[in-house]
Design brief:
By secondary structure, the chain is of the alpha+beta class. The protein contains eight helices and ten strands.
């Protein structure tokens, strides 16, 4: 089972450190060794174990090999642990409802915003337009920390930031990447212009269909944002506007 090899591979503290360093982007053996109290051969051995476990991929450029996190292997490991989370949620729901918690369950379901739209382009293109080319289509007017006087920056890896940078160099954080699996999905915290303690979660998936790509958006965590019902109502229309503009940009730029 691949997830078992991944868990075993990450059991070594130094190997975990190597893996954490790779979350910041591709690196060579030499670059990794400079930040670790171990030799280059030792780093190479750790990378070999991580690669065999499906957690790291290798790419050659000229005479150098570069290593990066393997999103597919990480997705399988995540799916394994998410299975436990699903079981825990199911057990909690059953216990809550058995104790008269149906009203709490109903209220929690109401504080979930779901949006779906089909765009006329392949999933790979849709994913790139939504992330790499957001500055070409995002409706900055009314949907920007700096009132449109800015550019949106994506650090496209788990743990990376999504933020606005104003033309004066000031930065305003939108959130942090929680999952990155192009071209299928990404997830991030969401608190543009607000403190991290109010962060919600945003998950977007891209699924190929006969007529293009279905984009599903799930926005949760409203109970942490303050005045949840009013804020959700505002975002309900806001996401409709954003997704409509995105769909037009994705279809036009094929």
């Amino acid at each position: 089972m691949a997830y078992a090899e991944a868990i075993q591979a990450l059991g070594d503290p130094t190997r975990r450190t190597v893996f954490e360093l790779l979350r910041g982007g591709p690196r060579s053996v030499g670059e990794l060794a400079r930040g670790l109290p171990v030799s280059r051969p030792a780093v190479s051995q750790h990378l070999r174990v991580l690669k065999d476990a499906g957690l790291v991929r290798e790419r050659r450029e000229g005479t150098r090999n570069f290593y990066s996190v393997n999103g597919e292997g990480l997705a399988e490991l995540r799916a394994y642990f998410e299975g436990f989370w699903d079981e825990a949620l199911a057990a909690f729901k059953a216990a809550a409802e058995s104790e008269g918690g149906n009203e709490m369950s109903r209220m929690t379901d109401e504080l979930v915003l779901r949006k779906s739209i089909v765009v006329a382009c392949p999933a790979e293109h849709a994913f790139r337009v939504f992330t790499e080319r957001m500055n070409d289509w995002w409706p900055f007017e009314g949907h920007s920390i700096f009132a449109g006087n800015a550019a949106i920056v994506w650090e496209r890896h788990v743990g990376g930031r999504v933020f606005e940078r104003s033309h004066d160099g000031e930065e305003g954080l939108w959130g942090t990447v929680l999952a990155w699996d192009p071209p299928r999905s990404f997830a991030m915290t969401w608190h543009p212009g607000r403190g991290e303690e109010t962060a919600q979660e945003l998950a977007v998936t891209f699924t190929a269909e006969a007529k293009g790509t279905r984009v599903d958006l799930l926005h949760t965590g409203w109970e942490r944002a303050g005045d949840a019902a009013a804020r959700l109502a505002s975002y309900d229309g806001g996401w409709d506007t954003v997704l409509d503009v995105f769909a037009g940009a994705a279809a036009a730029g094929r």
